[in-house]
Every structure is written in C-alpha cells, then in structure tokens.
Amino acid sequence: MDTHRSTSQWWIQLSALLAYMLIYVVLTVAATGVDISVNFDDKAVVHSYKIMQGIGMILLFAVPAVLFAVIWTKDKLSFIGIDKLASYGVTLVASIGMILALPLINYLATLCLLYTSDAADDVRCGV
What is the pLDDT of residue 86? Predict the structure, then answer.
C-alpha cells in the first residue's frame, strides 16, 4: 500500500518546508543579538521564558513533522506515529533514558559555565 502522494511539484513543497525552518533559524539568531536586561529573580519573567521555550520547541520539532506529513502523505496520523501506543518496553527504556540524561545535562551546563563565563569564579568544583 502506497501512503505517499505522487506530485509533480515536489520541489515547491520541499522549498516551503525548508523555508519554514530557515525563517525559524534566522529569527532565532536575530533574537539572540538583542541585548535585553532581564530580571531572573522575578518569577513571572522566569515563567514567561519557560512558556516561550515550550512554544519554541513545538515550532522547531512538531510543526515541521506535521507539515511534512500533511504535504507528502495520505495517511497523516500513521506517518507521524500517533495512531497507536508504544509498547511498554519502549516506554520504559525512553523514560529511563530521559531520567538518566538529566544529570548529564546539568553537568554539561556546569562545564559550559566554567569555561565560557565569569561565573567560573563563583562555581566551586569539588572544593
């Protein structure tokens, strides 16, 4: 059973998908150049940053997958893989992997602080 659409203008669809990702990257890079003084002691500011980061992750990962499924496939839900549940083994392995990745991420963030900022004087590693 063929689940992909046949189209004669595939390059237009591919260009639209790549343009979306390019625009996202350009806007992200442009936003990093803005020098803004932010008070991270304010809980409302931190909460709004968490919401913006969540929206950014959806725009970066979910929207391109859905666009690809809508543009190129006939059976959209099965292409994305949300029409059936994962097995318990896969769910268990993925959960353990996510839990074990958290300390590694924190360690890498500490290393980044040590080597790239003035915060290295404030961090005491093993002392």
Answer: 80
Residue 73 has φ and ψ, to the nearest 5°, of -120, 155
- Give tens-digit pLDDT for 60-71: 888 888 887 887
pLDDT digit string, tens, across residues 6-34: 556 677 777 887 888 888 888 877 777 66
For CA atoms 48, 50, 54, 59, the dihedral sign is positive
Tell me the H-state helices in the chain. Answer: 10-32, 43-57, 63-72, 76-80, 88-116
Write out the two tokens for 9. 């203008």
Query: How distant, in Å, are the alpha carbons of 45, 83, 126, 127 from that of 118?
Result: 23, 49, 18, 18
Structure tokens belonging to residue 105: 């991420």
Least confident of 24-28, 74-78, 112-116: 112-116
Query: What burial letters (b/e) apply to 12-30, b meaning 16+ CB within 10 Å?
Result: ebeeebeeeeeeeeeeeee
Contact status, residue 74 vs residue 4, Cβ threshold 8 Å: yes
